[in-house]
Amino acid sequence: MVTPFPSSPTYKRRNDHHNLSAPENEKKTKKTPPPLPSLPNELIIEILSRLPAKSLIQFRCVSKSFKSLISDPEFIKTHLEKVKTLSKSHHPDFSQTIVISSSEPLFKLKSCSVHSVCNNPETDVVILDDYSLKDTYSYDWVVGSCDGLLCLGIEQDFVVLWNPTTRIFNRLPDLRFSKKSGSYTVFGFGYDSRVDDYKALAIFCFCTKSVHGGSRYVNRIKVCSLKDRHWRRVDDFEYGIPYDVSGKHVNGNLCWPVIPEGGSMESMWSIVAFDLAEETFKEVVQPEYGEGVYDRVLGVLQEWLCVMCNYLGVRADVWVMKEYGVGDSWTKMFSIPYLDDPVRFHYSVPLCIFSGGEVLLEYNSVFVIYNPKDGNFRYPIMNGASSCLEADLYIQSLVSPMVDCHE
């Protein structure tokens, strides 16, 4: 077959066909897509409020309008309520986070997902310390958590409020208590719904000479709100001396185990609560524990006030107050048997209850999962958490520890 010359009619027709078709194809590929429909602002808020906090932090870079919306205090409140609801339903994307105080090799905060611990044979635990927080403060312990904020006690002198999700922290002023030999300070942290504010409480306990000779411990109480940012003296309470532990936040109250006047550490303590709205103290009625009680630990379980009651060498009973302030609402949830000598180590108050009914708690510096239905134990492998001094839970939120802070 003879190939046509470039000037031949056959070549020209093919070439013309090629030249005509190229612009048409290019025109088709450059066709402008139809504009996206404009969504009502209410629908955008509804969609975004159902996303995890970490995703929303990234979405603030999408546009100025997104940044303004996601930083708006009303949106943050709406998102917080959605996160609380979804975390209670054990949604994996909104699982609570365990914050672990560890002493190996140095005092550090570490974290992992509750959902991962429950559902995976192994969980990687990561260091939670924020670089700026770590370089600035040497914190002693986690006072507590509320709405995604962690309260850290700093050398019994002041506290830092920190949101690990947004990485924003706020140092509250110094307490200015005059330290004395044998004195100590305990803190509590919670939310006052009446004024929509977060408050920290400090109880300074010190020894003084009594009028009848000898000595006794007395208390000095101060409270600091996030909006006011200064410590105010409030009336002292005469219920006794609080244990050297953080206050447990339940239903707008901070609760402490308190040794009665003239008692000892081995005495049966009472529960005293500070109402964050009224700023007054009140004793809380306890359940009927029965005979043989050896030791008790106060805590919070599923937003209920909780007491872990140990019976020497036998078991630990878990009591919860289903309706705060109502004595008849105390309910024994379950008992946990001891598998070895409980004199040296005790179970912690359970951290949480999984959807299947299993409970997560700490024993002898490691985590244990117990199933009250069949009495079986599981020992989750938590890589990076060889020891646990204390553990707490927090949710991932956009709540800021700064007043009117939108960054």
From TrEMBL:
What PROSITE patterns does this protein map onto? FBOX
Locate the region Disordered: 1-37
This protein is called what? F-box domain-containing protein
Q: Which InterPro entries match?
A: F-box-assoc_dom_typ1, F-box-assoc_interact_dom, F-box-like_dom_sf, F-box_dom, SCF_F-box_component
Q: Which NCBIfam families match?
A: F_box_assoc_1
- Known PANTHER family for this protein? BNACNNG10540D PROTEIN, F-BOX PROTEIN CPR30-LIKE
**Species of provenance:** Dovyalis caffra
> F-box domain: from which residue to which, for each copy?
33-79
